[in-house]
Amino acid sequence: MKLTLLSLAAALAFCPMASFAESAATDQAVLPNTDWAAWGGTVGLRLNISNLHSIGITIKSKPGALAAGSARLTDGLNVPQAAGIDLFGLRESGSIQFQAARGSFAGFLGGSLQARGGYELALEDGSVIPLVDFRLRPNAGNPMWLDVVSGDGKAWFYIDKLMYELVRENHVLAIYTADMRISPELAERVGHPEMSTETVADLEILTEVTRQGGGGQADPRGTATHYHGEQVVGQAPGVVYQTDLFMQDISVGRVNASNNTGPGGNGRVVFAPNSTLRNNVNAGSAAQSVSGGTSTTSGTSSALWTAWVPWHSKFSGTFPPYNNDQHPFLIWNLYRINADASIEQIGRSGVKHAFLTLNNGCAPGENFDSHILGRSCSDVYSTGNNNSNGAMGFRSEIIPATNQWGRCHSLYDPGCVGSNTNSNPSDDGFVRRMVVNESQISNTVNPGATYLFDSWYLARQDINIYNSMATIEGTPTYSAGNWTFAGQGNFKLGSVTDRWVDNPPAGTVVQNSELAVSEGHTKVAVRVTNLGNNQWRYHYAVHDLDFSRAVTTGSEPNLEVVRNKGFDAFSVPLPAGASVIANRFSDGDLTAANDWSFSPAGGQLAWTAPAGTSLDWGSLYLFSVTLNVPPGPGASELKVAEPGTPATFSVPILVPTSDVIFQGGFESP
Fold it and tell me: Which of 314, 36, 9 lies closest to 173, judged by CA?
């Protein structure tokens, strides 16, 4: 025991948090050898002040906070470190016990970690929650959770969605990020039950391992690699590994708000997801990877041999197979389906840069590296993590169809020097987030509306992008001063347009067509409703999934994306004699200046973007028109905003027609 601790002390001599901790031997002696123990180090919290204020809690004082730049146990390692946090020391007394398996943390067993310092939280009724010298104690109901125990002995908060890694040859348990949430008891105590389980902080916990038990060795990697396109050993030539990533689960939390007054208000609300993914499970035969499939996406991959997915933090170096710091990206969006069945995208996130995979539930032999997602492995990026300022970039920096990041002159490398010179960009809690206005989610402004939230992982060379995106239903609900996304459920794989056209009511026909080219994918969908009195209402939804005609300079890893525009015009034919009764356009924002112009001239219904604007990847626009002619087979036209060949694409879709065969029965094509 003494030799292990002395070795650790030598390795971390630069860090005053490192402990010789010989007295820990007595504290740990009664524990089985399979158990691990840790103490000391630091805990960092990035408080969600908006969510605290929304339940009537303010910070009265913050004693014991360490100075910015204080030593941490991961200093000198090429790993993520939380920014913009309040940092506190953890005491070198007692310990927290945990277990490990396959080289990774596998759950808490007992004990606790105690902070040096913390917060005094003032409540509206004048009482105080003494969160000074708080303890982090394993949750009795879930070994992957921690309770945050205040000085009065009560667990008013809990911690989940841990992203962890054993580093420094298993001498440090590094929890890079985790969500601290409002317990149901606290929500009741402050009179805001609607805010139960919402996040109030993002945490970093770095603690020194004082004893290593069993399970510390990761799976052996072996000599063969299994990246996309590589030959499968023992199979016929041309049988290769393929990437097919799956979204597995989504839940949504509120992470910020300002000036909220309710359904009649114009304040802002920010939502972010917990997004869980899973790699394909196949190893020579087909099996279901996730449930929640649809008629277009089953949850079972067509790739019979699963490729590894590289998962390297930005600026962490150059790695196979692309000789860069390749990692997946994540986006999320909110849609409103109005009472008239039209769909609008009312919220769009920036781009989350993934940095680590937990590799939960891996197939045997596939959990060998926390920066490679192996076969059957799953991972989760939590609400607080997805609101992290140091990981949120711009969609304009990504070539989505190839999943290449233009890091040169990006938000994080503005000088194109090849390093992260802007690790904590300017942040007001709204920039690069998915922001909606209260009027957009108000049930009084939008009576009869329903809502869909989607989340999508983008992985390089993914053979089926529809497996890695999914939607859930929910209802934005205002109660006691707070907006939440209530009633979440009904998870479905696939694009939101797939879901929008499912099960149309009587009197409505639909079509959902895909444009799939080397530059990316776009869905053009339509719902046509017979209003009677010789009137038909056409709702066209154009969803640019990952199409862009990118203009770049340089090459990876120092690629620059100069532009990555999508489309700047959309049109469908208009037969002679047809009359336009009404028309509408929506890009989902509240800015009229960037709305597309409409023209019914020249035998076309045409919508054109203002100069310099376009329908870009990850976005859905609505084009609606009411006419006196029924639908029939035809094609729409999409004009690419960037010059090149082809300049336009034709996509089959129902269009207005003078064909009389549709006027009686209104048949579906």
Answer: 36
Total residue count of the chain as it appears in this document: 669
Provide the token pair at 651. 């996509």
Is residue 654 within 8 Å of 509, Cβ to Cβ?
A: yes
Residue by residue, DSSP assigns 6-44 as HHHHHHTTT-TT----TTHHHHHTTS-TT-EEEEEEEEE
DSSP letter at 312 equals P
In 326-468, which ranges are E strands?
329-337, 343-348, 351-353, 372-373, 378-381, 392-393, 398-399, 404-405, 434-437, 450-458
The answer for 618, left when phi > 0, alpha when psi is -120 to 50, beta otherwise, is left
Rounded average pLDDT per 10-residue block, the chain, 669 residues: 37 37 35 80 96 96 96 95 95 96 96 98 96 97 97 96 97 98 96 95 97 95 95 97 98 96 97 98 97 82 98 96 97 98 98 97 96 97 94 97 98 97 93 98 98 98 97 97 96 96 93 98 98 97 98 96 98 96 97 97 97 97 98 98 98 86 42
CA distances from residue 173 to 103, 209, 421 in whole angstroms, order as listed: 11, 6, 27
In the numeric block, which tokens belong to residue 210?
Answer: 């004082």
With a threshold of 0.90, does the pTM exceed it? yes
Question: Measured between alpha carbons, how far is residue 484 from residues 46, 262, 401, 475 in Å?
Answer: 21, 11, 33, 8
Compute the 3-state secondary structure of the chain and give helix, strand, coil in percent, each to the nearest 5: 10, 45, 45
Helix (H, G, I), strand (E, B), or coil: what is residue 275? strand
Backbone angles phi, psi at 61, to 5 degrees: -160, 165
Cα dist from 613 to 203, 466, 516, 565, 591, whole Å: 39, 27, 23, 9, 13
Q: Which residue ranges does the chain devote to CATH 2.60.40.1170?
A: 501-669
What does the alpha-carbon distance between residue 541 and residue 619 come to, in Å, rounded to a whole number? Answer: 10
Q: In the structure encoding, which two tokens stand for residue 475, read together? A: 């209802």
Which of these, 619, 649, 620, 652, lies nearest to 637 by C-alpha position? 649
Q: Is 501 helix (H, G, I), strand (E, B) or coil?
A: coil
How far is residue 667's CA from residue 205's CA, in Å, rounded to a whole number? 61
Q: From its phi and psi, is residue 323 left (phi > 0), alpha (psi between -120 and 50) or beta?
A: left
Nearest to 338 by CA among 411, 412, 442: 442
Count of beta carbons in the 10 Å neighbourhood of residue 91: 16
Decide if domain 501-669 falls under CATH 2.60.40.1170.
Answer: yes
State the Cα–Cα distance between residues 269 and 503, nearest whole angstrom.
31
Q: Tokens in use for 135?
A: 């303890």
Q: How far, in Å, CA of 565 to CA of 458, rounded?
A: 18
Which helix (H) or strand (E) segment is 2 a member of?
A: helix 2-11
Q: What is d(CA 9, CA 19) in angstroms, rounded to the nearest whole number?
A: 6
